[in-house]
Inverse folding.
């Protein structure tokens, strides 16, 4: 047997055993190192945990100490607050005790006063009853009868006072309305100042010499008869030197006759054929003038859309007068006045102007048509397709019918203003001057008055007095007496202001 086969297994076993023991030794070494590491880690962990535990305990102690300190501070504050509240409560309790004591005293006083009042009340009631019985005995009236009597007297007094108050309010309202109306009317008059020309029913034609009168009369009066027949106007040839008077109520015909006669005198050829030719030319000239005047009136007042015949009728008013007042100028002025007042009152300005311009339309033909000019004018307005409002204004401007619109009332007022203003009509001017003269004469009649002057259309009178006869105190008395005498003796619209002037002048000269 080969010894190698025995050695080899033995070597294998030995090497295996050696390897086993070596590995076991190494493993044991690792295990011991691991255990030591574990022990070290555990020891470190234990030390760290103990350190942390000590830190936590310290923090907890610090926190507990802090909480304890805060609780002690809060408790001290609470105790201090409770002490303050206790002191306040004690003070309030003392105050309440004092108030209760005071109230008890007041209640006692009130009780005594109530007792006294009850006693006084009983005495007063007894005295009143005694007085009532005595009054009933003296007056012969019972209490109920006296009450009814007193109530009736009070009611009568109250009714009287109420009536006075109502009258006062009505007076104030009227004064305010009058003041406002005067403002509007004065504004309208100030903004519309028209001219007025006094005309008559005759015209005068100047002649170059008195020989012309014979030529106008003609052989056996044929020229004058032809002229009167063609024009419808009477020629008055009297002793008036170098003048012929044309007389007639139709102003248009009178104007035609005047123009024709002036043309004949200028031409020098006066015979029936020439007279007829000149009258025809004069009629055409007057018709042109009438149309132009009518158009001028519509343009001046701003009234448009009138019928051509209405414009001609307006133009005819140029030759028509009423109480010496030219009717065309009067109609234009009424249109302006009515328009101004309508604008102030917020009414229809165009309607008021149109109604004012056409209100006297009937006077253009009242020599030819029977009836009052109001009715004639309304019929003409209706004939030429004017609006119902215009027809009503024309028919109502003299109160022949009751005015139904504010424009109709304004045209009435404007018509009165235009006709009544000083200088508009001859008769009104004379009355106006007489009133001013009477006003001055009345003031002059007082002793000590040197001179009186009526100014502002008679709305004020200025009285100059003699300073050596009337002093300042007497001046007040005299002015009051003058005003009182004016109220008693004169009739005037509105009011008159009395201004008394007392002036003393001392003059000296330095030489």
């Amino acid at each position: 047997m080969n010894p190698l086969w025995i050695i080899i297994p033995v070597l294998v076993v030995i090497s295996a055993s050696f390897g086993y023991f070596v590995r076991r030794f190494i493993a044991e070494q690792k295990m011991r190192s691991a255990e030591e590491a574990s022990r070290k880690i555990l020891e470190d962990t234990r030390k760290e945990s103990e350190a942390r535990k000590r830190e936590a305990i310290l923090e907890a102690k610090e926190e507990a100490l802090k909480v304890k300190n805060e609780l002690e501070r809060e408790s001290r504050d609470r105790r201090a607050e409770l002490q303050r509240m206790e002191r306040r409560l004690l003070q309030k309790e003392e105050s309440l005790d004092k108030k209760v004591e005071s109230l008890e005293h007041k209640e006692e006083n009130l009780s005594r006063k109530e007792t006294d009042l009850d006693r006084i009340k009983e005495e007063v009631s007894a005295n009143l009853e005694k007085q009532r019985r005595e009054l009933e005995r003296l007056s012969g009236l019972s209490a109920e009868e006296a009450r009814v009597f007193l109530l009736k007297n009070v009611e009568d007094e109250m009714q009287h006072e109420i009536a006075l108050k109502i009258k006062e309010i009505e007076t104030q309202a009227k004064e305010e309305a009058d003041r406002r109306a005067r403002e509007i009317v004065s504004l309208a008059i100030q903004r519309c100042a028209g001219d007025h020309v006094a005309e008559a029913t005759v015209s005068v034609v100047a002649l170059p010499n008195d020989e012309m009168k014979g030529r106008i009369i003609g052989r056996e009066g044929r020229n004058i008869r032809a002229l009167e027949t063609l024009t419808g106007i009477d020629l008055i040839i009297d002793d008036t030197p170098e003048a012929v008077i044309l007389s007639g109520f139709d102003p248009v015909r009178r104007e035609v006759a005047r123009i024709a006669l002036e043309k004949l005198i200028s031409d020098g050829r006066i015979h029936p054929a020439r007279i007829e030719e000149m009258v025809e030319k004069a009629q055409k000239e007057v018709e042109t003038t009438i149309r132009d005047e009518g158009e001028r009136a519509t343009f001046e007042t701003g009234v448009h859309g009138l019928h051509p015949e209405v414009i001609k009728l307006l133009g005819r008013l140029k030759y028509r007068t009423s109480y010496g007042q030219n009717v065309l100028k009067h109609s234009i002025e009424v249109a302006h006045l009515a328009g101004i007042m309508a604008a102030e009152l917020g009414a229809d300005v165009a309607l008021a102007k149109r109604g004012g311009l056409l209100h006297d339309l009937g006077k253009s033909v009242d020599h030819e048509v029977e009836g009052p000019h109001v009715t004639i004018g309304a019929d003409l307005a209706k004939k030429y397709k004017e609006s119902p409002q215009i027809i009503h204004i024309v028919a109502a401007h003299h109160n022949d019918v009751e005015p139904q619109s504010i424009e109709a009332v304004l045209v009435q007022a404007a018509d009165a203003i235009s006709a009544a203003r000083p200088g508009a009509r001859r008769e009104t001017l004379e009355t106006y001057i007489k009133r001013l003269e009477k006003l001055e004469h009345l003031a002059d009649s007082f002793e000590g008055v040197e001179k009186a002057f009526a100014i502002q259309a008679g709305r004020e009178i200025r009285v100059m007095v003699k300073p050596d006869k009337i002093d300042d105190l007497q001046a007040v008395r005299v002015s009051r007496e003058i005003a009182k005498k004016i109220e008693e003796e004169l009739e005037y619209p509105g009011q008159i202001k009395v201004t008394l002037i007392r002036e003393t002048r001392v003059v000296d000269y330095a030489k």
Summary: The longest strand covers residues 449-455. Residues 193-199 have pLDDT under 50 and may be disordered. The two ends are 199 Å apart (CA to CA).
